[in-house]
Every structure is written in C-alpha cells, then in structure tokens.
Design goal:
Layout: H1 2-27, E1 50-55, H2 63-78, E2 83-88, H3 99-105, E3 110-111, H4 137-145, H5 147-153, E4 161-176, E5 191-194, H6 198-206, E6 210-213, H7 219-224, E7 230-234, H8 235-240, E8 249-265, H9 266-271, H10 274-307, E9 313-316, H11 319-328, H12 330-340, H13 342-349
Parallel strand pairs: 1-2, 1-3, 5-6, 5-7, 8-9
Antiparallel strand pairs: 3-8, 4-7, 4-8
The structure holds succinic acid.
Amino acid sequence: MEHDHMKYFIMASILTIIGIITFILFDNGYLFQEQKITFDEEQSGLEDQIIIHLSHVTAENTPKGLAAQKFSELTFEKTNGRVKVQVYPNGILYSDNDELEALRKGNVQMIAPSYTNMTDIVPQWKVLDLPFLFQDYDHIKNVFTGETGEQLLQFITDKKIKGLAFWSNGFKQMTNDSHPLLEPEDFAGNTFRIMPGEGLKKQFHALGAKTITTSFTEVFSSLEKQMVDGQENTISNIYTKGLYQYQPYLTLSNHGVLGYAVMVNQDFWDSLPEDIRLQIEDAMRETTLWNMEKSIQMNETQLVEIQKMEDIHVYELPPDAKDRWSKHFKTLYQETKQEAGSDLIELIGNKSAKDSQN
Ligand code: SIN
C-alpha cells in the first residue's frame, strides 16, 4: 500500500514537471512555431518573412474583424508573401485597456482601437466623438479616407506610434434594458456603459445620465449583472456580442460614429524596407475603402437579423427629437471647440457629401 502511494506520488510529480516544461516552452514560442509558407520559386526571400501581429477586440464577423482579415490577404498578395499579417480578434491577446502599451513595447506591431480610447493621448480626436457631427456614411468616408483623415493622424505625438488609417464600424445606436430612449428625459437617472473617453462621459452627463467606463470585453457581463441600464454601440457590435440579450430596447439614433485608428509600432515601421512600406500602405488604402462599404452593408444586414427577434423592440429616433437632444449638447460642443479648436470641427463638419471638396 505504502509502495503504491509512493509510485503514484512519483508519477504525479513527473507529469507535473512535464506539464510545467511544456507550458514554459509554449509560452516562449518554442512549441508550434510560426507556420512557414511553402517555398515557391516565384516567391523569393521567404526566408526573410516579416510577421505583423495585429491585435483587436471585436468579433471576426464585424467591420473591423473583416477589415483586419482583408488587410492580411492584401498585404500578403502585394508583398508577394514577404509580409504575413497574423490577426488576433476578440481581445484574445490584449484587451482595449492594454493593447496600446503592447504596441508601444513592440509586443504586437499593429492595433486598431477606437479613436475614443485614444483621446487621452490625442485630445484633438475628441471632436470625432461629438454627437450628430457626422451626417451620413458618405460623410464618414470623406473624413476618414481623405486629406482630413491624414491631418487627423498627424495629431499623434507619441514617438512610438505611427497612424496608418481610420476604419469605420458605422453609426452608434442607443440601447436600454427597460424603455426606449427617445427624448432627453428618457436618460435621466440611468447609468450607461461607455468606452474610455471624456467626450462620451460628457455626452451622457448632458442628457442627465450617469456613466461607467469598461473595456469592450466587459460590456456583456456589465449588462448581464445589471451594473448599467444601457449602452451605446453599433448594430454590428450589438449583434455579434449578443448585447441585445439584456437590452431589449434599441433606438436607431445614429448619434455618433465608432471609428478606429489603425496604428503601427514606429520602430518596427522604420525597420521595414522602403518597398515593403509602400506595399503595406497600398494594402491599407485598399482595405480602408473596402471597409467603408463593408461597414454599411454589415450594419444593415445585422439590423435585419435583430429586427427579426421577437423580444427586441426597435425604434427610430424622430427627427424633431434629434433637435431636442442637440440642445443638451451645446456646452459639449463649446468645450470641445475650446480644447481642439473650432477649425477642426468646421473642417470635419464641412466634409458632408454636399460640401465635400475631397
Ligand atoms: C470596438 O469596437 O473596438 C470597441 C467598442 C466598444 O468598446 O464599445
């Protein structure tokens, strides 16, 4: 008996040691090394393959998730296999709280957080969160893909980061667990989950509501645990993360835009040969234009899916209610003007389809 115990003890110890060694090897990347693509005579230089790790937090079947995959395909194609972009969706690598630091340290080479998440270090981007600033999808496209987008990217002063493009997830809508949000009074006393961003906090406070800031990965549980009464997000995020399950009242308010700043680690970028940088930029331009169309289409088809759900009540924000909401945002506009400059607000405001000079 004593002897059997000893045998089990030794076996268990050996298995534990093997487990620990396996974990250490895996964690340090010695197991399951990057899969090398098969050598093809037409593709020279594969031995020097460059890997870009692109981390983001949304599901794969979203405008950002699909744009990341498209960018990966286009980059591979345009660099003739020299550059491989590995995409990590759903925050599996880093949440939106820590992806920026991971980029700075070079633990990943590329991220695409919402510009809202970046407003602490790029305060000018607060303008992009102003409610009812963007009129329609053409307006978003004109700003994100034109000279204005280029100018906005230049506001990044962090030496470790280079901005490459803005992608869109489309317009944000309002959701609530107990009633439709149609008039400013409907917000009074309710608590809303927001992304980290001073502008969004002020937007909800202006409507008489309170806010709780959480990372995207915590939104579902904050709704499930009833820590908040409502939240704002795009149809695509509401649908793919199942947020509607605890938010049966959806108001199509189109009050704001969820956009992303696609950024690369500057040291990594500087280390790339010139021709590769140009090819990556080309892939990024094509992806960004593709994303503009895809984001419209996805939000439309996923809204149809939500509308089919019996327990979800979908409301359109009446146009005159939009004016009543806007009255509450006057101070927010004034404060943002003082901080970011009125020129910037005008510049973006003037890029709507009818005024576009892009
Ligand atoms: C994202 O789309 O990247 C996150 C949005 C959110 O935090 O609500």
